[in-house]
Design a protein that fits this description.
Two copies of one chain form a homodimer. Chain A is an alpha/beta fold. Chain A has one domain: 3-Layer(aba) Sandwich (Rossmann fold), CATH 3.40.50.300. Chain A is built from eight helices and nine strands. A five-stranded parallel beta sheet of chain A has the order 2-7-1-8-9, with helices on both faces. In chain A, helix 1 packs across helix 7 and helix 5 packs antiparallel against helix 6. The longest helix of chain A has 16 residues. Chain A is globular, with a radius of gyration of 17 Å. The model of chain A has no long low-confidence stretch (mean pLDDT 92). At the A-B interface, helix 6, strand 9, helix 7 and helix 8 of A face helix 6, strand 9, helix 7 and helix 8 of B.
Chain lengths: 202, 202
């Protein structure tokens, strides 16, 4: 029997490194996909429509909200972000595990909707290091960076209700830890019994 | 702030490979120790008193039970096994994680006593393979092997209430999975916040 795909929801303040971490574990682990979100923000250099995000106009996004097409959506730093129900359900029904790289507001909506979801928060090692990373990204204005920093403290307090917290100090260690959480959740008894229970008459 | 050590409790039917698996992860992971149990069974070739078990007489064991020195104890296949409270508390207070390699009866006692314990069950890939492994061990009589097999079905049904189940089909994969569970549990939000919460005022 094939089990249902697991939803892994990953949040972090901007600059904590979640996008890079997610890409890395998707490269390493089989049967794991990135759920591509919709957004109204402008693409950054190198970002590809349909791979990193579906970049859409605000009007189109609003229409999708009205039509109930989103499992979660939120406004973050003045832009809209959302995950389509269709995307998630398609993976889950096929037993494919999905990583969602979304903010705390969206994560909260999914926490209520999907009981079996696994919620992971990525922390920077310190506020000072977060500032340094945002500066070195060179893609945002000083004003945007300041706004992200102001928001970070509030976002970090949200980490309390997540299942796991990974401190992204040393990148290779953070990758190992994120991978461990994903592999461990696949070994959760309720999930393993879905597939091998019958064999042992459990 | 130093967090309390985690209790990892591992059970499996004889022959599922739990002793070897535990040794392997203890070699790989830092800050992890094997909790040495007391037993009244005779040492197998190669087993060392104080490393594999504390081998004691039945009378001494009974006295320890009476004195409340055991966090758990059980009779398994006609022998007595127990974990001393002193052993566990010593590690926990020092922030050292401990692996206990014990049977389901003992595990149940710990489940009630230690809320934060992590319970892991190792399954053989099949009953046929379990039989093959017990045969090849060459240390037990045919009668003992049959008794172990008879008990296995009942023990395996206990896996339902464990937190994680690892199927020991391919040894290297099982090691990876057991290691993942241990690393992931160290990343559990409640535990990480014990150490980094203050830094971020969470």
């Amino acid at each position: 029997m094939k089990r249902e795909g697991i939803l892994f929801v990953i949040s972090a303040p901007s600059g904590a490194g979640k996008t890079t971490l997610c890409k890395e574990v998707i490269d390493i682990l089989p049967n794991l996909r990135h759920s591509v979100s919709y957004t109204t923000r402008k693409p950054r250099p190198g970002e590809v429509h349909g791979r990193d995000y579906f970049f859409v106009a605000a009007e189109e996004f609003r229409q999708m909200v009205e039509d109930g097409e989103f499992a979660e959506w939120a406004e973050v730093h003045g832009n809209l972000y959302g995950t389509a129900v269709r995307t998630l359900e398609g993976y889950r029904a096929n037993g494919v595990d999905v990583i969602l790289d979304i903010d705390c507001q969206g994560a909260r909506q999914l926490k209520e909707r999907y009981r079996g979801g696994v919620f992971i928060f990525i922390l920077p090692p310190s506020f000072a290091e977060l500032h340094r990373r945002l500066d070195s990204r060179n893609s945002d204005s000083a004003e945007v960076i300041q706004r992200r920093l102001d928001n970070a403290a509030g976002e970090i307090r949200e980490s309390r209700w997540y299942d796991f917290i990974i401190v992204n100090d040393l990148f290779t260690k953070a990758v190992e830890e994120l991978k461990a959480v994903l592999v461990a959740e696949r070994c959760r008894a309720s999930r393993v019994l879905e597939t091998v229970g019958e064999l042992f008459e459990i």
